[in-house]
Amino acid sequence: MKPAEILNTHKLKRTSCREGILEVVINAGQPLSENEIRENLPGNYDRTTFYRSFKTLEEHQIIHKIVIDNQLVKYALHNSITHKQDHAHFYCNDCDMVKCLDDIPVQKYQLPDGFSDNETEVIIKGTCPKCKNKD
User: Fold this and answer.
1) 13, 91, 111, 118: which is deepest, by most CB within 10 A?
2) Are 25 and 63 in contact (CB under 8 A)?
3) CA torsion angle for 110, 111, 112, 117 (degrees, to 10)?
């Protein structure tokens, strides 16, 4: 799906910044941090425009946050766009790469009475094959 189609489907105004952010995320093939997206974003947008566009895409569930820890957050297209089920993510402790593990679905947990969940995240941390082979 192209950025313009995604924005039209979500009834959002097409702006070059929004389309640029989506283009970077789509072409990356893996989750990226805000800085990685900014570095690859064509055009020169001020911080306010970038963050407003970014926040709008997140609020409309076009991109979603993958929280690795309190210092690292990556973003990818939301499952509603990619038509993927909820899945685990792998984080490489050496190179900070995050990979969607589409074949590892997130299980539903039985919660105590009175509790309800909104979302469940599974982050598996370790070493990716590329970093493992450096040794």
Assistant:
1) 91
2) yes
3) -150
